[in-house]
């Protein structure tokens, strides 16, 4: 704590560099900047205490400062142990008017290379605002902040946190420990937090899946907006963001020539489509695996061979998982790969690649090439290169998606926060999407920067296709 500001970041002296990059990012984030201008006077988030768990990058810094400009008080953590950009975290803590010696910004608890225990400690810091106040809004990416509140409230109702068992993985054991410590301090802490929260806005596919499950089971404790399924989020960030940041991550990690290599992409959803385009753009020969016949057919129509992993595992040079599912690449499959095959994941969680199984292979050696790049040497002398220990490599080995595409995602986030905060009682404990006219607004805010000249419908044309001249231009079921 310095000057009453709580934080835990790597090094505040990185703040001036962070500030310069934030200023460059602001220019590339026209949607967020328009939101700042639109709400400069009314400050719709005045009184909001936002707990944010989302990759602490330069782009996220622009989102955080937008929420602050809209009137919110904010506490922030990263949603991944490797995704923080330490200069971004430092700049947010120092703030626009502070100095590294006298920080005057926002509370951030995040650094690159947290341990899992540190990660859950940081996440727990979200739920205690200064003055004994609790958060009343959540921004989540993957659902870990929401999970802590739900599990906490569940165990509080039960009167105790269960003892970890040998079957629980390391991460779940840490969650239980975090909650046990919390319950010891205040036996109703998360019940109170849950009652205070007006809503959560969720950034990604996996987090959204968790929310729909909670809602289906009747266990969701507050309203939620699914930001991921705004068209201007998943059809842009997941696809074009990955198209940029996947190749970036592989290059920064390995600098291997991608042209001519055989790249296997597991999953051909929004992220998989961007991944395939990314590597094809570098001249790699891309093949994909899918379980969904529609996505498999899409891949085939794009000229991509659709294969089963086992049939290519011995000849691929590069394996990238994008499924949001678990157990996609097994340890046995990695042991059959070519020498120095590269294995990485861009799905949200680290269970797509069986890292635990890899570590258990008798005689295997883990050699650190540099942080987030490891050579795993099998007893027979051949190796695979694993990026970011199986976690999101585009954020662990590079800096994630570029500002312009994140401006689309985060403009949806800012609008969703305003919606849930300013309309308490209008939303049930359910999962909602933003209405299409707001989705179209987000896109519209990004056209000028690219010199796009939009054609305007005539009144007669609008009537002919059955829409309003000002939109929305498509029915809800349209798929883009
Ligand atoms: P999606 O649902 O559109 O795509 C996932 C695809 O994987 C689906 O088509 C599904 O049929 C397929 N799949 C599932 N199990 C499979 C299996 N066993 N083998 C082969 N294919 C399988 O989801 P989306 O939006 O593409 O997201 C994928 C993951 O990426 C999620 O975890 C999401 O949270 C994450 N994500 C990561 C980003 C990043 O910056 N790294 C950005 C956005 C999303």
Question: What does this protein look like?
Answer:
The chain has 480 residues and is α/β, with parallel strands linked by helices. The chain has helices at 15-27, 30-38, 58-69, 86-94, 116-125, 144-158, 170-185, 189-196, 205-216, 231-254, 270-281, 293-301, 309-312, 331-335, 355-359, 393-396, 403-422, 436-444, 459-465; strands spanning 49-53, 73-77, 107-109, 137-140, 199-202, 224-226, 262-266, 285-289, 305-306, 318-321, 341-345, 365-370, 373-377, 383-387, 431-432. Helix 2 packs parallel to helix 3 (58-69). The protein is globular and about 65 Å long. The mean pLDDT is 97. 1,4-dihydronicotinamide adenine dinucleotide binds at residues 204-206, 234, 237-238, 241, 266-272, 289-292, 295, 322-325, 328, 346-348, 392, 394, 400-401.
**Please, how many helices?**
19
User: What proportion of the residues form beta strands (DSSP E)?
Assistant: 5-15%
CA-atom Rg in angstroms: 23 Å
Biggest sheet, spatial arrangement of strands? 9-8-7-10-11-14-13-12
The outline comes out as: globular
Give the proportion of residues in helices: 40-55%
Unreliably modeled segments: none
Distance between the termini: 48 Å
Number of strands: 15
Given helix and strand content, the structural type is alpha/beta
Task: Catalogue the ligands.
Answer: 1,4-dihydronicotinamide adenine dinucleotide
Q: How would a textbook summarize the main sheet?
A: 8 strands, mixed
């Amino acid at each position: 704590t310095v000057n009453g500001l709580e934080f835990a970041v790597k090094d505040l002296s990185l703040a001036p560099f962070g500030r310069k990059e934030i200023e460059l990012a602001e220019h590339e984030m026209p949607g967020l900047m328009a939101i700042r201008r639109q709400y400069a006077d009314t400050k719709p988030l005045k009184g909001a205490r936002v707990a944010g768990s989302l990759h602490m990058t330069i782009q996220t810094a622009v989102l955080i400062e937008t929420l602050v400009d809209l009137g919110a008080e904010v506490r922030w953590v990263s949603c991944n142990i490797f995704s923080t950009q330490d200069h971004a975290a430092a700049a947010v803590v120092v703030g626009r008017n502070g100095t590294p010696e006298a920080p005057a910004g926002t509370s951030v608890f995040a650094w690159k290379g947290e341990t899992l225990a540190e990660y859950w400690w940081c996440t727990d810091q979200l739920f205690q605002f200064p003055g004994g106040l609790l958060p009343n809004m959540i921004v989540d990416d993957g659902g870990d902040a929401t999970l802590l509140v739900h599990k906490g409230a569940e165990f509080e109702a039960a009167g105790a946190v269960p003892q970890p068992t040998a079957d629980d993985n390391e991460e779940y054991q840490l969650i239980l420990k975090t909650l046990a410590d919390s319950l010891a301090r205040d036996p109703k802490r998360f019940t109170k937090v849950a009652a205070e929260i007006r809503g959560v806005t969720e950034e990604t596919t996996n987090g959204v899946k968790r929310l729909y499950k909670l809602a289906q089971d009747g266990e969701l404790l507050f309203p939620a907006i699914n930001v991921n399924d705004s068209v201007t989020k998943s059809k842009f960030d997941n696809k074009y963001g990955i198209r940029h940041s996947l190749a970036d991550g592989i290059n920064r990690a390995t600098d291997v020539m991608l042209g001519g290599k055989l790249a296997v992409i597991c999953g051909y959803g929004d992220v998989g489509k961007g991944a395939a385009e990314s590597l094809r753009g570098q001249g790699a020969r891309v093949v994909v695996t899918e379980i969904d016949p529609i996505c498999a057919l899409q891949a085939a129509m794009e000229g991509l061979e659709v294969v089963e992993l086992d049939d290519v595992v011995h000849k691929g040079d590069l394996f990238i998982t994008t499924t949001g599912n678990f157990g996609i690449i097994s340890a046995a499959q990695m042991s059959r790969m070519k020498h120095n095959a590269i294995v990485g994941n861009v799905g949200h969680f680290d269970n797509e690649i069986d890292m635990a199984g890899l570590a258990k292979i008798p005689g295997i050696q883990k050699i650190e090439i540099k942080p987030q790049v490891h050579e795993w040497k099998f007893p027979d002398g051949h190796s695979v290169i694993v990026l970011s220990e199986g976690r999101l490599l585009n954020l662990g080995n590079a800096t994630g998606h570029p500002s312009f595409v994140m401006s689309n995602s985060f403009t949806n986030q800012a609008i969703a926060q305003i919606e849930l905060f300013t309309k308490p009682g209008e939303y049930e404990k359910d999962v909602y999407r933003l209405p299409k006219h707001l989705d179209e607004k987000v896109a519209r805010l990004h056209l000028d920067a690219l010199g796009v000249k939009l054609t305007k419908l005539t009144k007669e044309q609008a009537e002919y296709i059955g829409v309003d001249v000002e939109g929305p231009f498509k029915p809800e079921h349209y798929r883009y």
